């Protein structure tokens, strides 16, 4: 091995270590573990408060709590999952068998609450989710719970839901079946 390739190997290891540390300390946004911890706290406080909105104890906690629902929704929709409302026909009934129901499964507090429940039942964040962005972890538990949802959505001709602007979600293209 030449000196140049050894130097590149060392440089690669240093760069990988720096990127891992930067990710671990949240330089690239909330990690999976950060999301789980802050959104678990928000869920616990929301349950205590009932219908009242809980007040964060610090600005950082407020920022973290404010991200629970939009970060969760973005990750859920990126998996291709859609929420089923009140099924009106056979297609919608078959979709409800493999996709989450917004009436029966999503708590009134938001989909982040169900995300925390799914994470708890899966054993919490995995080791590698301490450095990965939260969306990877959220997508994992939703895909594990509803593995056939995206394919059934596609089969029935429903478009994917995408983020059109920060925190604004809509169909990827006009949804003829949704009218």
Category from helices, strands and their pairing:
mainly alpha
Spans of at least 5 consecutive residues with low confidence = none
Strand order, sheet with most strands: 1-2
By DSSP (H or I, 4+ residues per run), the number of helices equals: 8
Rg on CA atoms, Å: 20 Å
Helical percent range? Answer: 40-55%
Tell me the number of structural domains. 2
* Helix and strand element order: HHHHHHHHEE
Q: How many strands, which pairing sense, and closed or not: the largest β-sheet?
A: 2 strands, antiparallel
N-end to C-end Cα span: 65 Å
Q: Give the total of beta strands.
A: 2
Strand content: 5-15%
Categorize the overall geometry.
globular
Q: So what's the oligomer here?
A: single chain
What can you tell me about this protein's structure?
The protein is mainly alpha-helical and 179 residues long. It folds into 2 domains: 1-28; 31-174, no CATH class. 55% of the residues lie in helices and 5% in strands. Strands 1-2 form a two-stranded antiparallel ribbon. The longest helix is centred in the first third of the chain and has 22 residues, at 3-24. It is globular and about 65 Å long. The mean pLDDT is 86.
How do the helices and strands line up, and which of them pair or pack?
Layout: H1 3-24, H2 32-49, H3 59-66, H4 68-78, H5 90-98, H6 111-121, H7 134-145, H8 149-155, E1 161-165, E2 168-171
Antiparallel strand pairs: 1-2
């Amino acid at each position: 091995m030449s000196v140049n390739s050894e130097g590149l190997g060392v440089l690669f290891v240093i760069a990988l270590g720096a990127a891992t540390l930067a990710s671990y300390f949240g330089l690239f946004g909330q990690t999976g573990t950060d999301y789980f911890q802050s959104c678990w706290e928000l869920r616990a406080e929301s349950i205590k408060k009932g219908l009242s909105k809980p007040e964060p104890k610090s600005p950082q906690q407020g920022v973290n709590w404010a991200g629970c629902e939009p970060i969760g929704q973005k990750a859920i929709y990126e998996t291709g999952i859609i929420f089923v409302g009140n099924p009106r026909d056979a297609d919608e009934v078959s979709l409800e068998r493999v996709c989450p129901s917004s009436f029966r499964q999503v708590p009134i507090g938001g989909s982040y609450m169900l995300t925390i429940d799914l994470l708890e039942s899966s054993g919490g964040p995995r080791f590698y989710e301490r450095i990965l962005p939260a969306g990877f972890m959220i997508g994992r538990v939703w895909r594990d719970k509803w593995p056939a949802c995206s394919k059934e959505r596609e089969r029935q001709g429903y478009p994917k839901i995408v983020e059109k602007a920060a925190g604004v979600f809509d169909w990827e293209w006009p949804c003829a079946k949704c009218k």
